[in-house]
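Please, structure for the following, as tokens.
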Amino acid sequence: MKSFILKSGLFCLLVACMLNVVAQRSGRKRNNTTQPQNNQQSTINNTQQPSGYNPYGNIPIRVDSVGAVDTVVKKSLRNDNAFDKTGIMERTPLPYEHLRWDDALFSEKVWRELDLREKINQVFRYEAQDDNGSQIFVDMLLKAVRSGEVTAFADDRFTTPMSMDELNQMTVGSADTVPVTDPNDINKIIE
């Protein structure tokens, strides 16, 4: 019985070694005679790019005005509240008391970039229309800048204030184009 177990163990060891050798054997080396020709062709294609390339040629471009910034949110004429909220809007916060440098125990400047794709920052994307307009954080911030309550700066050191024209150019952006294809021939672009 001991010899049978010994023989079967040696046989399994031999089979495992053979499988290991077969698994580690490198594959055949292929003849790469076509490789330099493909590299030469790709370098030729990469160097021959026209300078004024226009993918749509002389096809007319039509600007769609849906979702433009110039849309005005109308205030509801119906009072949806159980109480009058005018007192809340008219309140002013108390001014900060003058704090001497010697009296300050701790100060810290915190810079944060808000990634609105993260779940914790979804509250900044709240897309409801309230009595005072859009509740998206960026829209509320732009509204405060346009009313003059907040000053927008062009740099992180707050040295160069931005004008309203610069701010509008930065926030509105440019019109985006989408090709309109012919329904009968999807390869033909009509607009």
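Strands lie at 129-130, 133-134. The mean pLDDT is 76.
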